[in-house]
Specification:
- The complex is a heterodimer of chains A (212) and B (102).
- In chain A, 63% of the residues lie in helices and 0% in strands.
- With 212 residues, chain A is mainly α.
- The chains are: A mainly alpha (212), B mainly alpha (102).
- Chains A and B meet through helix 1, helix 2, helix 7 and helix 9 of A and helix 1, helix 3 and helix 4 of B.
């Protein structure tokens, strides 16, 4: 099922729907939106690659669709100048990521990270995940922090995207919750579980390589 | 033995079960004033949760530094065909809007 569009929208009330004579000419709106795209394109692409575990085509498609959807919302007047454009676009991107995945596979609402206590189990679970890439082959090439990328890639996607939005991109819990269409408490819970799991994976990695 | 440490001394974060979300929220500052006060009080007297907080803080620093890290071999912009697709889609959206208003 599609996520609600509310997940992609900003916090502000929608009171500026396009009506004749109420907004600047559409050319001005297009120019303003193009400026936003130009400013945040690289951020969106970088974030999309992480969401898609480094699958370049999927990441490019995700950003493309987010920017198209973003323009529709932008013309609705739901984005206000001066608000956080980066967070707004990231919310649309994350919402699109989830919707895109839901088209392929039913969302795993009750995924339980407690069961994933060993790295081997985690990797085994995602060895068959072809829709968002094979971490070992695509994600790790040339990355600056391979252990962290590997650990992130091993997380279930519901947990990974929470970490990406809050810890990496710096979104507020409320923005992440809106983007993912889940309660703030769920974001909080997923973050704490994911952080514990990430730390243990990174510690194991360092210990295995005798860095500790 | 320190409950937050394994026999060899490495950190092994195992927070009290009722404190996990609170310690996590304390590490990123998203915790409320009263809950923050309670969590800091608990962490001050609980080695397991203190170890967990230290682990979360170090992880957060690493993740934050990851924000701008990018693969130097990857492009920082969309491919030309995606850009073209976007321009086409934006034109279509505008035409549809103008049609609906006329």
């Amino acid at each position: 099922m599609e996520q609600s569009e509310a997940g992609a929208g900003p916090k502000q009330p929608r009171g500026e729907s396009v009506r004749r004579g109420e907004l600047p000419e559409i050319e001005d709106r297009r120019a303003a939106y193009s400026l936003l795209v130009e400013t945040h394109e690289s951020t969106l692409l970088r974030s999309a690659r992480r969401m898609c575990n480094g699958e370049e085509d999927l990441a490019q498609d995700l950003v493309q669709d987010a920017l198209i959807r973003g323009y529709q919302v932008f013309l609705d007047g739901s984005f206000r100048e001066g608000s956080n454009a980066r967070a707004w676009l990231l919310r649309i991107l994350a919402n699109g990521f989830i919707n895109s995945y839901n088209h392929r596979k039913k969302w795993e609402a009750d995924c339980n990270l407690d069961n994933l206590t060993e790295r081997a189990h985690v990797h085994a679970e995602f060895a068959g995940d072809r829709e968002y890439g094979r971490p070992e082959e695509s994600l790790l090439k040339g990355t600056l922090d391979e252990p962290l990328m590997q650990a992130l890639a091993s997380l279930p996607r519901e947990y990974r995207i929470c970490v990406l939005l809050v810890d990496v991109e710096g979104l507020e819990y409320a923005d992440a919750a809106a983007a993912l269409n889940i309660p703030i408490g769920t974001v909080r819970s997923r973050l704490s579980r994911a952080r514990l799991h990430l730390y243990k994976l990174l510690y194991d990695y360092a210990r295995d390589r005798r860095h500790l | 033995m320190n409950p937050g440490r394994t026999a060899g001394g490495p950190p092994d974060p195992q927070p009290c079960s009722h404190m996990r979300n609170l310690v996590s929220s304390l590490s990123d500052g998203s915790i409320g004033r009263l809950a923050g006060w309670y969590t800091r009080l608990h962490v001050g007297g609980c080695p397991k949760c203190r170890t967990t907080l230290e682990a979360f803080l170090s992880l957060r620093v690493r993740l934050k530094s990851f924000e701008l890290a990018a693969n130097p071999s990857q492009e920082t912009s969309l491919t030309a065909d995606r850009r073209s697709n976007i321009e086409t889609a934006l034109d279509r959206i505008e035409h549809e809007r103008q049609d609906s208003l006329s």
